[in-house]
UniProtKB/TrEMBL annotation:
Protein name: Hopanoid C-3 methylase HpnR
GO molecular function, one term: methyltransferase activity
PANTHER family, alphabetized: ANAEROBIC MAGNESIUM-PROTOPORPHYRIN IX MONOMETHYL ESTER CYCLASE-RELATED (PTHR43409), BLL1977 PROTEIN (PTHR43409:SF7)
Cited NCBIfam families: HpnR_B12_rSAM (TIGR04367)
Ranges of residues in domain Radical SAM core: 181-395
GO biological process terms held by the UniProt record: methylation
A cellular-component GO term for this protein: cytosol
Length: 513
């Protein structure tokens, strides 16, 4: 079969600070190609809808799959499905990815028959089985993870080994379009999959059933050698949870003489526990480290079930700085914040040298916050669920909340992208331009045209064709079994030594699973 894999357009945040290679879609495309199918990829982060229709006309696919990893992309995907069905009524259309796995039936209802099925869970594990069933005319509901308007197939399954799934990087048509900060261009790579923690605002652990699986250091090094981009974003939800695995990858990189510049995300407690791993990585190319603090006080940390004290968070920041790393942190702005709270956060952020990102508390399907807060939503427009819009009631009038939010973001952006700060990045920018890379330089001037309180407020007034269903009453205690996409398999699904498993259990606040 001829298969077209589609990644939807950029979200608000990614229009400025980064544009990441669609690694998940490349993995699905690679699995489909390994199953014997003819595959193409189009990424609408880097191309247009006009490019999409041109490719569909030229390629004439038998099947089109869409990446539904982000909730805010649901309306665009459904519009494409409707129009594609109208123009090419025989094409088999399906959607997979993180977010749609939690809301499969809702999306199918909204599609009004234009979507054949949702492929729930790890798409690279089952896309070949689905395409074979479509090609052979057998029942697709026998494929694990499939959901249609007529029913649901067996539970989704994991790939047998992360060593056996490789992304179809060669199918991406504009590889120079991907960057994160000054890493321009940058490719993405996966060292491990899943997360063993259980933060209330996150759905990584509910998607993967608190599993944690790793690729072998040799396979990872093979992939790094094949990647042409000098910048590498490590997509793991928490990098180097397992000290031995992180050190083994570093040793393989050193042995082969691989020269790259790396950006990764981790937890403060993981950084402090595995200091030597991060020290070694700082010596082989790690330049940027993102630590999700989420809150600047103990009450906020408790709310998000981040069982890391403020002292430990600050200690982790100090250690990362001591390694010469550029540190970025995230703070979640709660709808309850008033002007005084925003001002206090601004002052705190200005007192530290690190890059600070501000996002907005957003209940996502698959999170505990969703089940507790969904009845309080002030909007059912999928497009506003992008962590940059307020979807819960705000203490301040909404226009004032956005004024304070954007003011905070502008202060922090100026701190790192003002004229004084730009002197430090001028050399980087010149070198990038010499090599034909303009992503980072263009980003410097985009902020005010994207982050604008009047525009954000106007987004709430847009007519919405696709709405979330009205949610049931909130619950005080969430049944965790209702959250999972891949059911929890317990200890055997986590590639951790016993000491690390104990460490994880001590730093999480949920029940055993």
């Amino acid at each position: 079969m001829k298969v077209l894999a589609v990644h939807p357009s950029a979200l608000m945040y990614t229009k400025v600070f980064l544009r990441l290679e669609p690694l998940g879609l490349e993995l699905v495309a690679g699995a489909a190609r390994n199953a014997g199918h003819d595959v193409r990829i189009i990424d609408l982060q880097a191309e247009t809808h006009e490019d999409y229709w041109k490719l569909v006309d030229e390629f004439q696919p038998d099947a089109v799959c869409y990446s539904g990893s982000y909730l805010a992309n649901v309306p665009e995907i459904l519009d494409l499905c409707r129009e594609t069905r109208y123009r090419f009524p025989q094409v088999f259309q399906f959607i997979g990815g993180h977010s749609v796995s939690f809301i499969a039936k809702d999306v199918l209802d909204l599609s009004e028959g234009t979507v054949n099925c949702i492929l729930k869970g790890e798409g690279d594990a089952t896309v070949g089985l689905l395409l074979d069933a479509v090609q052979n005319g057998t029942d697709i509901l026998e494929v694990p993870g499939t959901i249609t308007l007529d029913g649901e197939g067996p539970p989704p399954i994991f790939v047998k080994s992360l060593d056996e799934v490789r992304p179809a990087r060669d199918l991406l048509r504009h590889r120079n379009k991907y960057f994160i900060g000054t890493l321009d261009p940058a490719a993405s790579i996966e060292f491990a999959r899943g997360c063993p923690w259980d933060c209330t605002f996150c759905s990584a652990w509910t998607f993967y059933g608190r599993s944690y699986r790793t690729a072998s250091p040799q396979v990872i090094a093979d992939e790094l050698e094949e990647i042409k981009e000098p910048g590498i974003f490590i997509v793991d939800d928490v990098a180097f949870v397992h000290e031995e695995h992180g050190m083994a990858i570093a040793n393989e990189i050193k042995k082969r003489g691989i020269k790259k510049e790396y950006y990764l995300e981790t937890r403060a407690d993981v950084l402090l526990r595995n200091k030597e791993v991060f020290k070694v990585w700082s010596e082989i190319g790690l330049s940027y480290i993102f630590i999700g603090l989420e809150a600047v006080d103990e009450e906020g940390l408790k709310q998000f079930r981040k069982r890391v004290s403020l002292d430990k968070n600050f200690e982790a920041l100090e250690y990362a700085r001591s390694l010469g790393l550029i540190v970025a942190i995230n703070i979640i702005a709660d709808p309850s914040w008033d002007r005084a709270r925003f001002e206090a956060v601004r002052q705190w952020c200005l007192e530290i040298p690190d890059i600070v990102n501000i996002s907005v508390t957003t209940p996502y399907p698959g999170t505990e916050i969703w089940h507790k807060e969904a009845r309080r939503l002030t909007t059912r427009d999928y497009r506003l669920f992008d962590i940059q819009h307020a979807v819960l009631p705000t203490t301040l009038p909404l226009p004032e909340f956005y004024e304070e939010l954007v003011k905070t973001q502008q202060v922090l952006n100026t701190k790192h992208m003002g004229w004084q700060a730009l002197k430090d990045t001028a050399g980087i920018a010149v070198n990038l331009l010499k090599n034909g890379q303009t992503n980072f330089v263009k980003m410097l001037w985009k902020f005010n045209s994207v982050f604008n309180p009047e525009l954000q407020l106007a987004d709430h007034q847009r007519p919405a064709r696709y709405l979330m269903p009205v949610q049931p009453d909130a619950v005080d205690k969430v049944d965790r079994n209702d959250l999972y996409v891949h059911g929890p398999g317990g200890r055997k699904t986590r590639a951790l030594d016993d000491a690390t498993e104990t460490f994880v259990d001590k730093t999480r606040m949920g029940e055993d699973a």
